[in-house]
Design brief:
Layout: E1 5-18, H1 34-44, H2 70-78, E2 94-97, H3 100-119, E3 124-143, H4 164-175, E4 180-184, E5 192-196, E6 203-217, E7 223-229
Parallel strand pairs: 3-4
Antiparallel strand pairs: 1-3, 2-5, 3-6, 4-5, 6-7
């Protein structure tokens, strides 16, 4: 089932990244003089072209250099981890949400799940530091909704098995030259999420805020997420 394709204007999206992965040189907000900022970014972006190791699903030509915060974009694609809803271990993607609280809940769910798996279900608090990276998207994206025909791509559990259908869809769309997918949040009913397959389409990535996420895990298996702006 190939979803419909449409032009999107997805502005000020929110992607939470652990603060420990913050690049040494960052641009928090884009200045009014975009040309000057690009020159500064090019002069300070001294990262070498990464090796091909671990990049089986993406070519070096696709990775971005010489733009503000290029490293944070590259890392999203270079380090796919064990895969996710719409990417596998070969190639990462830039995931984001339309509202910061949606990103917080999406991230918080996985943090709570890791605590449950690592330490058993018990009453526990744990703090995590995250940066809120905003970016804009203006391109053609495939679009999912909550209708029955797309439900298999938006299953909440079990993780990671529920990602299999979405990963298959992503590989199919990538072969067709797709830019990415817009889809309803699985963890927060009011949210809208995006996964971008192309590094060059992550427009104006900038660090805006930082948050402390406090995950409270209860004996029943329930969890709570509190967040404070730093």
């Amino acid at each position: 089932m190939i979803p419909p394709l449409g032009e999107i204007q997805f502005r000020d999206s929110h992607r939470l990244v652990r603060t420990q992965y913050r690049p040494k040189a960052i641009f928090r907000r884009v200045s009014a003089d975009a040309d000057l900022l690009d020159e500064i970014a090019f002069a300070t972006d001294t990262s070498e072209v990464p090796s091909a190791a671990g990049l089986a699903g993406i070519s070096q030509r696709e990775l971005v250099f010489g733009i503000p915060n290029a490293q944070i974009v590259r890392d999203a694609f270079r380090f796919p981890g064990d895969g996710g809803r719409f990417h596998d271990r070969d190639r990462g993607g830039w995931y984001a949400a339309d509202q910061v609280h949606v990103s917080i809940y999406e991230v918080g769910y996985h943090l709570a799940r890791r605590l449950q798996l690592a330490r058993g279900i018990e009453v526990e608090d744990q703090n995590y530091e995250y940066d809120d990276w905003q970016a804009d998207f203006h391109a053609s994206f495939y679009q999912l909704d909550r209708s029955r025909r797309f439900q298999k791509y938006l299953q909440a559990e079990p993780v990671p098995q529920c990602y299999a259908e979405g990963q298959t869809l992503a590989r199919t769309l990538l072969a067709k030259g797709a830019n990415g997918i817009v889809y309803p949040s699985v963890r927060e009913e009011t949210g809208l999420c995006i996964v971008c397959f192309r590094p060059a389409l992550v427009y104006r990535p900038r660090l805006t805020e930082s948050y402390t996420l406090k995950i409270t895990l209860e004996a029943s298996g329930a969890f709570h997420i509190l967040h404070n702006r730093k």
